[in-house]
Amino acid sequence: MLDVAFVVDSSSKSQGQAAWSQMISFVNLIIDRLTISQSVIRIAFVSYSDRANVEFRFNTYTDSQSTKQGVTNVGYLGTIGSSNLAAAFDALRDQVFVTSAGARSNVPWVAVIITDRSPNIRTQHTASIASQLRAAGIQIIPIGVLGSGQLSTNILNQITYEQTRVTTVNTYSQLTGVAEQVAGWVCNSHLRE
């Protein structure tokens, strides 16, 4: 049993909608490898650019097919130059990993962060809010696309709950090659003591 939130950077990309589509396909590849139901694994989704949008919560979808359709329906924000990961972390803490959103207190909480850009809004708060999330029991697994040259691996290392679970790829198309590994990390998450 797990509650898994996907947090996907929807700020502007050099490859635009095509890059966003590959990020969305990556999320759905991971979901394909999970058992989605109200009693096993629940999924939530947050997109962000200059602000965060909670697209759906843990109590929205109850099976893999409807969850994947919900992911596919998330629109690309494409806000030029703006990446506010701190706002996404605030949304996780205040709107997603809460019982009113379907979060369960007796299961591991995992946040899979997929980004291609270092935060440039509230940058001084990002690592400290990530630390608060980890202290609340949320296991952060960051996935970075480095090809744009706008992402520093330092931020991925600062936000993760475990250094061995930081993954980077050079291009969006390479995300598919790490889907199984990330799904394995998600499935092997345990309640933190």
Total number of domains: 1
* Cα shape: globular
Please state the structural category: alpha/beta
Might you state the CATH topology name?
Rossmann fold
Q: Approximately how much beta-strand content do the residues carry? A: 15-25%
- With strands numbered from the N-terminus, the spatial order across the biggest sheet is 3-2-1-4-5-6
What does this structure look like?
The protein is of the alpha/beta class. 35% of the residues lie in helices and 20% in strands. The protein is built from six helices and six strands. The protein has helices at residues 16-32, 64-72, 85-96, 123-135, 153-159, 179-187, and strands spanning 2-9, 41-48, 52-56, 109-115, 138-145, 167-169. Helix 1 (16-32) packs antiparallel against helix 2.
